[in-house]
Amino acid sequence: MTMTERPAGPTEKESACCARHDEHAGRPGAEPPEPARERINRRWNELLQETRVTQTGVQILFGFLLSVAFTPLFRELETPDKVIYVMTVVFGAAATGSLIAPVSIHRFLSGQRMKDEVVKAARRLMVCGMVLLALTIGCTLLLILRFVVPGVLAEVLVAGVMLWFGLCWYVLPLRLRRRAARRAQREEA
């Protein structure tokens, strides 16, 4: 099996991190420190699982969007709705590119002992892809609701859904991360 990873020797920063964990290793319920090689392999495997989920969703949505232009009803859309449709398709294509890019990066860099860099780049692409996916879903919802719901209610509903995405996908994880960092600081003190 070819792996894109660096030698497993810990860096100075990782040594300090592991030393901190070693201090807590004697405490009940404390986990042993994770070696650098295992950590990067775990992160890569987790990223692959996340990518599989998002790739499937964005590809199905993108395929649906492409088929819409060939329906008889599409010709009846007004210019603002066609603009929303074009934006939606572009966001969907960009999301597809961002969410599939980690596979390409891995394939090109496999065996180059760059797994840490591959994981970092793939993580950034996944975050970008998730933003683009949220925009794609929001625009799709706007296009559908403008056709079905009268007045400004469509925009209000879409704004609510986008706010929900922001809370679930970004605010909650950042809040949990901050809470864990504060807890770790208290434990060190």
Summarize the structure in words.
This protein has helices at residues 12-24, 36-68, 79-109, 115-148, 153-188. It is mainly α and 189 residues long. α2 runs antiparallel to α3 (79-109), α3 (79-109) packs antiparallel against α4 (115-148) and α4 (115-148) runs antiparallel to α5. The protein is flat, with a radius of gyration of 22 Å. It starts with 11 loop residues before the first helix and ends with a helix. The model is unreliable at 1-26 (pLDDT under 50).
Can I get a quick summary?
It is built from 5 helices and no strands. Residues 1-26 have low confidence and may be disordered.
Q: Which sheet architecture does the biggest sheet show? A: none
Structural class: mainly alpha
Helix content: over 70%
Q: Overall 3D geometry? A: flat
Strand content: under 5%
How many individual β-strands? 0
Termini Cα gap: 43 Å
Q: Radius of gyration, rounded?
A: 22 Å
Q: What value does the average pLDDT take?
A: 82
Contiguous low-pLDDT stretches (5 residues minimum) are 1-26
The number of helical runs is 5
Q: How are helices and strands ordered from N to C?
A: HHHHH
List keywords for this structure.
mainly alpha, 78% helix, 189 residues
What's the structural blueprint in terms of helices and strands?
Blueprint lengths: L11 H13 L11 H33 L10 H31 L5 H34 L4 H36 L1
